[in-house]
Amino acid sequence: MRITELRKKIGRTDLYIPDLHIEHGKIHGLTGPNGCGKTTLLKLIIGITQPDSGTIDLEGLRPTDITMTSQRPYLMHASVYDNIVYPLKIRGVKIDTGEIDSLLTRTGLMPLKQQYAGSLSSGERQKLSFLRAIIFHPSMILIDETLSNLDPESEALFRDIILERRDQDGSTWLIVSHQFDKMNSIFDETHYMEKGRIIR
Ligand SMILES: Nc1ncnc2c1ncn2[C@@H]1O[C@H](COP(=O)(O)OP(=O)(O)OP(=O)(O)O)[C@@H](O)[C@H]1O
Ligand SMILES: [Mg+2]
Question: From first to last of its 200 residues, what are the pLDDT tens digits of the chain?
Fold first, then answer.
């Protein structure tokens, strides 16, 4: 994906990205101070927000191949299982119950499969929103601070899942994180943002 001359005025921030190449098949880390425009950039990429000018060339990806997890995940008023299968149902993708159960077991959510998603703890919500995002094997995954409430063991597990998916699916990841020290080991590329600009 290549971003060229992208501009968006949002509140007091002027987002301006003259040239950013997100190479496919790699894991990209994105960090920067609160309010510098990271979430805005992800929303522009996925199309929730429209730019004032500039282009985002998906370089062959279809918009439906891209998924984003929110900093404040919205879950459906339904069970954990229903939340996970929803992206498959709306895309008409066959439900692979073996894969779902395997992911639920690995991430410790299996005992909560039929539980109301609204009753989950904060870390459990993050795990569920992550699984819901990756269940249909998207080509590009935008992660907005979604793994920040995980215990160290779970964090390591999710890093492993991301690496596996990159290797197996050749998927592209753009991961916003304030915990670069912990996540750095899996990043192929890192991008630093400040006041609406990518500075390095
Ligand atoms: N709808 C809006 N109206 C006005 N200002 C907005 C709007 N959305 C975002 N902003 C402002 O734009 C700036 C960038 O917001 P953004 O959410 O992209 O920051 P961020 O880098 O994701 O920060 P954080 O690390 O806190 O998540 C912030 O100053 C925010 O207050
Ligand atoms: Mg944000």
Answer: 999 999 999 888 899 999 999 999 999 999 999 999 999 999 999 999 999 999 999 999 999 899 999 878 889 999 999 999 999 999 899 999 999 999 999 999 999 999 999 999 999 999 999 999 999 999 999 999 888 889 999 999 999 999 999 999 999 999 999 988 888 999 999 999 999 999 98
Residue 15 CA, closest ligand 1 atom number: 14
**With b meaning 16 or more CB within 10 Å and e meaning fewer, what string describes 14-32?**
ebbbeebebeeeebbbbbb
Cα of 49 vs centre of ligand 2, distance in Å, is: 14
The pTM of the full predicted model, rounded to 2 decimals, is: 0.95
In three-state form (DSSP H/G/I as H, E/B as E, the rest C), the secondary structure along 32-58 is CCCCCCHHHHHHHHHCCCCCCEEEEEC
Nearest CA to ligand 1 atom 3: 11
Helix intervals (H) in 30-121: 38-46, 80-91, 97-106
Domains of the chain (ranges; CATH) run: 2-76+137-198 (3.40.50.300)
Ion ligand 2 neighbours, Cβ < 5 Å: 38-39
Q: In whole angstroms, give the CA distance from residue 100 to residue 95.
A: 8
Which atom of ligand 1 is nearest to 37's Cα?
Answer: 18
